Amino acid sequence: MRVVPLENESVNECWLADRDRYSYEALNSPDRLATPMIKHGGEWKEVDWKTALEYVVHGLKSIKKDHGAASIGALLSPHSTLEEIYLAGALVRGLGSENVDYRLRHAEFPTQTEGARHLGMTVAGLSKLQRVLVVGSDLRKDHPLFAQRIRQAARGGCEVNAVSARVPDWAMSLSCSCISPAAGWVQSLADIAAAVGQEKNSVAPHGGVVTQTAQCIARSLLSGERKAVLLGNAAAHHPQAGSLLTLANWIAAQTGATVGYLTEAANTVGAQLVGALPGVGGLNAGQMLAGALKAAILLNCEPGFDSCAGDVGVEALKKSEMVVTLSPFKANLEISDVLLPIAPFTETSGTFVNAEGRIQSFHAVVRPLGETRPAWKVFRALADILGMPGFTFDSSKEVLNHLLADNSGVVPESVSVERLSNACSVLSTGTATQTEPCVASIYQLDGIVRRAPALQLTADARAAETQEVRA
Description:
Rossmann fold, seven-stranded mixed β-sheet, globular, Mopterin_OxRdtase, 4 iron, 4 sulfur cluster binding, single chain, oxidoreductase activity
């Protein structure tokens, strides 16, 4: 088998990262889950869908009755489709809980934002940048296709600058690099802001020191046109993520640059748009993984690998009365009570919203394995048994139309700019208590790539098993 890219000059051009080229191997792995399973007396038993769904519904009802709706929550992977994420959240909210979150690797949890965090420019525009500052990203590994775009820009004369925990190895020349532990990144951006302020005779928002490196980056950003300040996964997951964004916004405003996030997953933007965030009084991912739940719904999520909590989160979920895992794989066997086999992206239709806000729908290309079902159908079935209104969708297309169609019933090519925002005014003065943000390496990012043999034989995968991943 050979996997080839869908060519699109506005997105990936003709390129496909190795992560996407070889991840298909996992879809035929012996770890695939092909039928529902329930744990009885510590042993897993295969059951039919009716039995599994009724077991889940009974458990949710009992836990709600005994402990209240606020004891139920959902941890949702942003690698899931728009339709799956929305219906998972709607199911939990239909039970009366606001405990819904996709921010599994985050350390800071703002309660409200003006819009979805996003790239702040088009993907194609990365190739035409003249100046760029990348903060907290192993660009070549975290975002290979974005790196390829910025490499094009560098060949055309773009000055690439970085704030990073280690010397960047991005296969491109860098103008200036500020190398600092993650705990010092707020100070690093404050220093750059101070240098920009000195050049422009303006007052920076935080006590920075004009160092030689900060001055180099400031002068680079103050020159040229088509500029951007881009925040990587480590910046997004940083315990002072809000402060980093606030300083990035100030620097960008003073230098005429845009601000954006390189985004971790295929649907990071989409998850925000469909409300995969706790509502009023709801628990965030960190709180849910600290032991606050009696019932947990895990969508494409393996907390030991996919969350900032790691093994601590796993131990906390063991104390829950019921954990329901929806996954294409036999995942979370240690902590789950029910496994529901859901289709990976190759076996279902669905939608992702990319970093710039482009809406990208797709169809299934192979038949579902065994008794596997699309996750959106599973949530619809659970809602039907629970008697919840608002789940009468006959296709993923109907779910998408419900979410994003305009007044004429047409789904636009991109999300309206009014729903996207990187605005932030948070600025803390202390230092980070967590030395390193939680960042997954390129071949540990999700359950599919972790199960692709070719990817796990690479040097990057082997290194990830023995050392901490740093930005």
